[in-house]
TrEMBL record:
Residue spans crossing the bilayer: 54-80, 87-109, 165-185, 197-218
Name recorded for this polypeptide: TVP38/TMEM64 family membrane protein
Cellular component aspect of the GO annotation: plasma membrane
Primary site of residence: membrane
Species, as recorded: Halanaerobium saccharolyticum subsp. saccharolyticum DSM 6643
Domain VTT: 68-184
Similarity remark: Belongs to the TVP38/TMEM64 family.
Pfam families: VTT_dom
UniProt-annotated location(s): Cell membrane
Length: 232
């Protein structure tokens, strides 16, 4: 009985994904998720007026669910909105998107994600790491590029980590990168003084450097046990 329900959920999910993917390509939205076309997407977002923040957050959610790159979306926020508002919108959108993928992996497409786990050694390490280290494994994988961001959102749905913990840790760990990329984009797009632009870039640079040091700090500390990370 349980297997039939899982199959039904999987079929419904696949149909929904197929319809959404068709819509993305039919309306020509896929091409906008590239760095070369950020200016096109920027104008498209602005045309929505007061609805622009909602559309932008929706783009983030779509990017997380459909394995689209998030960097162009983060940069877009810095180009379209005031820096502080862009950080808020990007943080909210990326966290909601990650949570949506987490819930799909846990409830709607569990069998499909299980298949991914069996084929990917890094994904298997996530499951093993959560069993040994709990939320600290999430903190580590959010900081190491060897674990694809969009894929791990789904995979964490298979683990024992709770939804509130996943939401909170994901939100906290994504803030530095979000701030860095938004500020860099804002610096390039702003008509402010050279000094203000340098301040934006300096803050972004410091955050990126700090992010690169987190994995080494975690592995050298006692925060995680028996987790080996192989960065390519």
């Amino acid at each position: 009985m349980a297997k039939k329900k899982n199959k039904k959920k999987l079929i419904i999910t696949l149909i929904a994904v197929a319809i959404a993917a068709y819509a993305v390509h039919h309306f020509g939205l896929a091409k906008y998720f590239s760095r070369e076309n950020l200016d096109i997407l920027q104008n498209w977002i602005k045309d929505f007026g007061i609805m622009a923040p909602i559309i932008y957050i929706g783009l983030w959610i779509a990017a997380c669910i459909f394995f689209l790159p998030g960097l162009p979306v983060a940069i877009l926020g810095g180009l379209v909105f005031d820096p502080m508002l862009a950080i808020i919108y990007a943080s909210l959108g990326s966290t909601l998107g990650a949570t949506a993928a987490f819930l799909i992996g846990r409830y709607a497409a569990r069998d499909l994600v299980e298949g991914w786990k069996q084929k990917n050694k890094h994904v298997q390490k996530i499951d093993d790491g959560v069993k040994k280290n709990g939320w600290r494994m999430l903190l580590l994988t959010r900081s190491v590029p060897v674990f694809p961001f969009n894929l791990q959102n789904y995979v964490y749905g298979l683990t024992d980590i709770s939804l509130p913990m996943y939401f909170f840790v994901s939100w906290i760990t994504m803030i530095p990168g979000t701030v860095a990329y938004v500020l860099m984009a804002s610096a390039l797009a702003s008509g402010e003084s050279p000094m203000q632009i340098l301040i934006y870039i300096a803050i972004a640079g410091v955050l990126i450097v700090l992010l690169s040091l987190i994995p080494k700090f975690i592995q050298k500390s006692d925060m995680v046990e028996d987790v080996e990370i192989e960065e390519n």
